Amino acid sequence: FGPEYVRAIAPYQGGKPIAEVAREFGLDEAKIIKLASNENPLGMPESAKVAMQKAVADIGRYPDANGFDLKAAITAKYDVPSEWITLGNGSNDILELATHAFVQAGQAAMYAEYSFVVYALATQAVGARAIVVKAKDYGHDLDAMAAAITDDTKLIFIANPNNPTGSFIPAAELEAFLARVPPQIVVVLDEAYNEYLPPELQYESISWVRKYPNLLVSRTMSKAYGLAGLRIGFGIAQPVITDLLNRIRQPFNVNSLAQAAAVAALNDTAFLQRSAQLNRDGYRQLTQTFDELGLEYVPSFGNFVMVKVGADEAAGARVNLALLKQGIIVRPVANYGLPQWLRVTIGLPDENAAFIDALKKLLS
Ligand code: PMP
């Protein structure tokens, strides 16, 4: 059935769920450590749990299709009109909506080599051509991207920071790129890991939206906000873009528990700060060990680190399997063309230590 471009899609491979690893390797679920999906090791904020539990009383009703309260919370936090906001069932929803709205079969979408795999999936799903621009130092080469723009390029995805490599584009370079992109091409600036950036690297992408009508900034509540299981993301763009996304989204794409929890989490700055601090400490813990072991890693600005675990093409798969047998789940990145590397999410200090111990034993 269906078009060839759909049949050609390789399905998304997420981090292995804990229950699946327990079954497959005969392990106790409670002892498994999952550092595979860039989740927040603190789990959900208490404030969000309370709000969600309250919202359960109304679960017999449909959610607010327009997300009034959540948009009001985003408006208050980021100083954007509510007509500029699109809510998504995770930010993957925003990425997909943008692809459906702006690219069709016979046209092209552009993204960088080693950038988030959903850009490729979304592009394939609409039968569009992908322009994949070679990475520079495992990150985006914006000059090469600008040079690769064709007449039929309709959409450009930029992940900042990028997953799985953790690379980061400084604000000045990013804005210079936006100024170079022809105004009829939509740029999706995917900032899933924005909240982990230290204050000195934060930049005003949301205010750039005022200047660039072709810019769509995407954010998620799955990472620093600790709500991955609830599936909430949002896009910010001028109404010329937002109107179109709104026309093609599902009527109730963000459920009511998610909306309630998201409002609470957005306002919980203490939780956000705790998450960012824990992440900075964990990054140091992991990378100090990589340095000691002489392992190459890509400096990361997200809540994960990509580390090279061997020189041969099977290294990532081999070390991954050995870790799984010990109940440690990390993420192979061979599907990105990086078979010698693994991506490890920064966890709690104990979780990081367990991973480090296992890795040291495996590599010694
Ligand atoms: N963008 C990037 C760069 C990501 O790493 C992720 C999570 N893997 C997402 C978007 C999507 O996350 P979610 O759908 O949970 O918001």
TrEMBL record:
InterPro entries (alphabetical): Aminotrans_II_pyridoxalP_BS (IPR001917), Aminotransferase_I/II_large (IPR004839), HisP_aminotrans (IPR005861), HistidinolP_aminotransfase (IPR050106), PyrdxlP-dep_Trfase (IPR015424), PyrdxlP-dep_Trfase_major (IPR015421), PyrdxlP-dep_Trfase_small (IPR015422)
E.C. code: 2.6.1.9
UniProt modified residues of type N6-(pyridoxal phosphate)lysine: K223
GO MF, one annotated term: histidinol-phosphate transaminase activity
Cofactor (UniProt): pyridoxal 5'-phosphate
GO biological process assignments: L-histidine biosynthetic process
UniProt keyword list: Amino-acid biosynthesis, Aminotransferase, Histidine biosynthesis, Pyridoxal phosphate, Transferase
CDD domains: AAT_like
Pathways involved: Amino-acid biosynthesis; L-histidine biosynthesis; L-histidine from 5-phospho-alpha-D-ribose 1-diphosphate: step 7/9
Record carries keyword Amino-acid biosynthesis: yes
Catalyzed reactions: L-histidinol phosphate + 2-oxoglutarate = 3-(imidazol-4-yl)-2-oxopropyl phosphate + L-glutamate
Ranges where the Aminotransferase class I/classII large domain occurs: 31-352
Highest taxon, organism lineage: Bacteria
Family statement: Belongs to the class-II pyridoxal-phosphate-dependent aminotransferase family. Histidinol-phosphate aminotransferase subfamily.
Assembly and oligomerization: Homodimer.
Family annotation (NCBIfam families): hisC
Name of protein: Histidinol-phosphate aminotransferase
